[in-house]
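During the no-cost extension, the postdoctoral fellow (Dr. R.K.) reprocessed legacy sequence entries with the updated structure-token encoder. One reprocessed record is reproduced below for audit purposes.
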Amino acid sequence: MTLTRSVGYWALVIGAVGFVGGFFGPMIFAPGANQGPMLGIFITGPLGVLVGAVGGLVQWLVQRKRVREP
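Re-encoded structure tokens follow.
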């Protein structure tokens, strides 16, 4: 897996999970809160993308190190 594919894949996956959790979670657990979906749009979605990108980079580095070792 290439660097951009690994980072992009994990950023997309973890970002989507963060967005869905932040967008729909407040609707389920606090239905009276009218600003609930903004949590997913502005906080958990972007943070999920950043965490996923860092995780994908770490995963790529570990995998690359394993391939190089005899």
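DSSP finds two helices and no strands in the chain. The helical segments are 3-29, 37-68. The remaining legacy entries will be reprocessed before the final report is submitted.
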